[in-house]
Amino acid sequence: MRVAIAGAGAVGRSIAAELLENGHEVLLIDKAPTAISVERVPMAEWLLADACEITSLDEAALQRCNVVIASTGDDKVNLVVSLLAKTEYGVPRVVARVNNPKNEWLFNESWGVDVAVSTPRLMSALVEEAVSVGDLVRLLRFSHGDANLVELTLPPESALAGIRVSDVDWPEDTSLVTIIRGTRVLTPSPEETLEAGDELLFVAAQAREEQLEDLLSVRRELSED
Questions:
Q1: Dihedral pair phi/psi, residue 70, rounded to 5°
Q2: Which one of 34, 45, 117, 198 is separated from 132 by 20 to 30 angstroms, measured CA to CA?
Q3: Ramachandran angles phi, psi of 173, nearest 5°
Q4: pLDDT along the chain (225 residues), means of 10
Q5: Angle, CA of 135, 147 and 208, to the nearest 5°
Q6: DSSP for 172-185?
Q7: pTM here?
């Protein structure tokens, strides 16, 4: 897979190194000569250019890329890069970094963004995820389809503890994608039984999040004597 990364700062270089380690082709683009540090990511291609300029993106052969990542520290730049990548070059997957949470609402399909990653939101979500049991935590927003990656740790009192995945009447527009149980990562097969303390990861429509949280957090009804 060929990936172009606009922004060769610490974030862009870290992403590039990870992708290269996983066997992908990576092109780093930055207009600042001081950001061109080939020795830091020697296996990547480098281009000194303004990623907001069509001529620069032509030189980068953006139409050959499977993914474009707009990772600069400027939200305006990231939006322009995303829009050009999607509309002018037809890049299938565009991922954009959101620096200011107040701008997050702009990072959607209208600007060519498939996935928006807000570092402040992600950090706060990870803090919430570490301390919250029974509360739904939004980890990532997908622009297409108005869907989010959400997490909920199944509380001990949940009515779903001990129930098979196939026996749960899940809300529409939600999909259980992973169960994290201790150090294990489980594929949620129909016969898998949910256990208290399981971390459940869903892709869910935003309109279904409250319904999903209610379903997973519902307490067992005490039997009457």
A1: -95, 100
A2: 117
A3: 60, 30
A4: 95 92 94 92 96 96 96 96 97 93 90 84 53 66 73 86 93 91 88 91 89 78 41
A5: 50
A6: TTEEEEEEEETTEE
A7: 0.63
